[in-house]
Amino acid sequence: MNSAIALIAWAILGVAVGGYGTLIGAGGGFVLMPILLIVFPQAPAAQLTAVSLAVVFANATSGSVAYFRMRRVDYATAAVLALSTLPGSVAGALVVGSIPRRAFDVIMGILLIAIASFLVVRPAGSIPLGSNGPGSVSRALVDKEGTSYRYRFNLALAVLLSFAVGFLSSLLGIGGGIIHVPLLTTFFNFPAHVATATSHAVLTVTAAGATVTHVVHRDFGPFVPITIALAIGVVGGAQVGATLSSRLRGSMIIRLLAVALALVGIRLLLLAA
Which CA distances in Å does 207 have to 71, 94, 143, 202, 217? Predict the structure, then answer.
C-alpha cells in the first residue's frame, strides 16, 4: 500500500514537473533532477540521470504535440539542432558514470546559478551573434492564434553550440531545454514563445538518444517503477503547461526560468557543502 501511495505521489510530482517544464520550454529535468538528488542521496548519478532523461523524453514528446498544434515550432531549425545535439547527448550519457556524486552536485549547482544570473542581467535576446554573417538565415511563422514571428539568426553557430548543449544536458540529466531556451532568446533572436516550442521539439530527440544509451547500459536498476509513474504524470502536465504558455508574455516566461534555476542551483550547492 505504501508503495502504491509513493508511486501516486511521484505521478503527481510528474504533473507539476511537466507543467512547469513545458511552460518555460525546459522539459522539467532541471526541476526533477535536483529532487532526485535530494531524495536519493546515495544513488549513483548515472541511475538518477537515466530516470530524469526518460521522464524528460515523455515530457518533451507530450509538450511538442501541444506546441505543434499551436504552430509555434520552427520545424526547419528544430530538425537541424536536434541532429546536432544527438551525438553530444549520447556522449554525456556515457561519461556521467565516471563523475563522483559530490562533484556532480557542485557542477550542476554552479551551472544553474550562472545561467539564472545571466538571464536576470540579459532577459531579452539583445546580443545576437553573427545574425548577418555567413551561415545566417531568416525565419517567419504565424501561430494558430494569428501572431506573426519574424527573426534572423546564425544557424551555423547554433549548430556548433548545440553539440555542447546535448553533452551538458545529458551529462547532468536535465534534458537541454534549460540551456537551449536562453541561448535561442539571447544570442539567436528567437521570440520566447518560439524558442520554448522549438526547444521542446529538439529536446525530444536529445532525451531519446540519452535514454536509449542508459537503457543499453542498464542504468535504471530499481528506479523503473518511479520512472513510469513520473512519465505518466508529466504527459498530462505538459499539456497544461503548453496551454498556460499562451497566456504569459515572453519576458515572464524567461523570468520564471531564471527564478527556478537560481533556487535549484543554490539548494544543490548547500547540499554539497
Answer: 22, 13, 26, 9, 15
Domain coverage including residue 82: 2-272
Where residue 188 falls (left for φ over 0; alpha for ψ -120 to 50; beta otherwise) is alpha
Cβ neighbours of 110 (radius 10 Å):
14
User: What are 240's three cell numbers?
Assistant: 497544461
Digit-coded pLDDT (tens) for 93-107: 788 777 776 787 788
Report the candidate in 242, 144, 156, 180 with the shortest Cα–Cα distance to residue 29.
Answer: 180
pTM, two decimals, is: 0.76
Give one word for 265, left, alpha or beta, with left for phi > 0 and alpha for psi -120 to 50: alpha
Distance, in Å, from the CA atom of 118 to the CA atom of 270, rounded to the nearest integer, reads 21
Domains of the chain: total: 1
CA distance 214 to 94: 8
Q: What residues have CB less than 8 Å from 5, skipping those under 6 apart?
A: none
Cell digits of residue 44 = 549513483
The pLDDT tens digits of the residues spanning 52-92 come to: 889 988 888 888 888 899 999 999 999 999 888 888 878 87
The region, left, alpha or beta by phi > 0 then psi within -120 to 50, assigned to residue 218 is: left
DSSP 134: T
Whole-number Å distance between alpha carbons of 71 and 92:
31
Residue in 206, 155, 209, 147 with CA at minimum distance from that of residue 183: 155
Closest CA to 145 of 74, 177, 193, 88: 193
